[in-house]
Amino acid sequence: MDWIPVEDALSRLGVQRQTLYAYVSRGLLRARADGEDPRRSLYAVADIARLKGRRRGARRRSEVAAGAIAWGEPVLESAISTVRDGQLIIRGRSVDDLAKRATLEDVASLLWQAEPPAAIASSARPEGDTAKARAFAMLARRAGSDAPSLGRSPAALAADAWPILSDFADALTGKPARGPVHERLARVWRLDARGAHLIRRAMVLMSDHELNPSTFAVRIAASTGAPLAACALAGLSTLAGPLHGEAAARALAQMDMLLAAKDPAAEARAMVARGESIAGWSHPLYPDGDPRAADLLAALKPKAAIARVLHVLRTETGDQPNCDAALAALTRDLKLPDEAPFTLFALGRLTGWLAHAMEQRANGRIIRPRARYTGT
Fold first, then answer.
1. Residue 63 confidence (pLDDT)
2. Rounded-to-integer distance, Cα 275 and Cα 254, Å
3. What is the CATH number of domain 68-376?
């Protein structure tokens, strides 16, 4: 990456120093210390070019707002996570770094900026035939009885968050238990130490991902002052969509089909030729590949048949796997139940949902966008 001194940056942008510094503070322009003179700053040429293009093609506010809905301009400020230079950053730390050793509880502490209590009260016995049904029932029960988030301190909200995480794990596993979440799952799924390590890693990698659809739904609910469990229920409802949390289930079905095919390469080639949607491949925020998938697959070292399916899909699509394909590979490699991708994704992402709900309450503003009327 090329860097230039402040004088050149000001000249290229045609702005005053105050504006330049505002760009940096808002995260629109990266700056770093000059290696030859630490008292001076250098500025990223690529960011300057992007800012020039934005200013040169300044659009009406309605056009900017419309473009922000789908992978567009940032619509709110957050100190929780971001995607920067192809990497996912959570509270200033690379998610790859966190995935090496952190438990889901460690990440929850980081996201919520709160230490876990010495003990968490046991929840009622989970009810429901499937993991998803039990999770919905648990959150709905708490959403109808927990205190609203409006007007409550960060410490009080964090005190609510810990039992929600524990109850959510009980609901998804179907068995009330104590201890780190990955160890609970490992006992239910009868995994060895390697398997427990891998599902721990997967949940940490899924813990937060900026303003994805479910997280945005959570923030909208939190902006109204709803209880934390109700905010999480809004996120879970959004996660249930086939284009979000259920994408891993589609990737799993696709993997099963290719694993059963006599010639996986020929079948993958035919899928692409037919214009079929290939679940679990590419991601708009990661043109060079989803780092979460790369991390999980590198740790997994999939069995030969699964590795072959991943290879032929890379070859035929020209893309890289995203986290949905990685969760599908993990599920088949460890012989987990078909619900495992949803369970791991939802458990990991709950920690991010609750962090965003708490941050939105600290912001204090209701999220209420306008619609552009197109009727008669």
1. 54
2. 14
3. 1.10.580.10
